[in-house]
Design a protein that fits this description.
two-stranded antiparallel ribbon
């Protein structure tokens, strides 16, 4: 491993762990037993075309630019570390950042679906963070819906000639928030026996808003700092994916 690659990995780890001093509490990923079997299967099936597109996207990029392996691995590691850090919320629940905005900006949203799935499987098995039966729902919210919004915001900001740092911040922040909007919809669809889906969704959003909004802002700031670091230590890789050229 070259000195430049070690610097990239060290930078990512340091930035994520800086905000990692949180207590070990229940996870925001939908846990085992919180979704009926039909919903688990349905969300899993819905993820399949996105995962197929993600696999092809990653395969194509690595064939064209083998030197992107380190940057891709770093993006996945960032998702794993930062989404494992759980901050206590109200009513005994908790919130956490997602980290998927960085990968969506660099590699596109399809590639992040694969990275997110890998992260969610390891978190469910090793950390009891989320669940295997709910892997489809968690993948759709965190690894598909959020990254697509992040990428959309990034593209819109570039076309509008918005400052790059502001664009990165908005993409990461809004992608994080949208992930939890989708999670609230998923929970509301499965648990609205005594009320409407809309009212149930509002209750779930209110539960996480006090901690999730500031966490999303923090994630946006961290993502901007990491991009700044990458522009110093990984210029060839960023040029390979067109990031620096498109940002000028």
């Amino acid at each position: 491993m070259s000195k430049k690659q070690r610097n990239i990995i060290a930078l990512t780890s340091a930035m994520a762990l800086t905000f990692g001093l949180a207590s070990n509490v229940g996870a925001m990923h939908i846990m085992e037993g919180y979704l009926p079997g039909g919903y688990c299967i349905g969300w899993g099936i819905l993820c399949l075309p996105f995962l197929a597109a993600g696999f092809m996207s990653i395969n194509k990029k690595l064939k064209e630019h083998r030197n992107l392996i380190t940057l891709l691995a770093m993006s996945g590691a960032f998702v794993f570390v930062i989404s494992s850090l759980k901050i206590p919320s109200v009513t005994g629940s908790c919130s956490h950042m997602t980290g998927t905005g960085l990968g969506a900006i660099l590699f596109g949203p399809s590639a992040v679906s694969i990275l997110g799935l890998i992260v969610l499987v390891f978190q469910a098995i090793l950390l009891a963070h989320g669940g295997l039966t709910t892997i489809g729902a968690n993948t759709f919210s965190m690894a598909i819906a959020g990254p697509f919004v992040s990428y959309g915001i990034w593209v819109i900001c570039k076309k509008a000639n918005i400052n790059k740092k502001v664009a990165v911040f908005l993409a990461a922040t809004l992608g994080d928030l949208f992930t939890y909007c989708v999670t609230a919809v998923q929970m509301a669809m499965a648990h609205h026996a005594d009320t409407t889906i809309g009212a149930a969704m509002g209750k779930f959003l209110l539960v996480f808003a006090p901690t999730q909004v500031p966490l999303a802002i923090i994630e946006g700031i961290i993502t901007v700092l990491i991009v700044m670091g990458l522009e110093t230590y990984a210029k060839p890789e960023l040029r390979s994916i067109g990031f620096l050229k498109e940002a000028k």
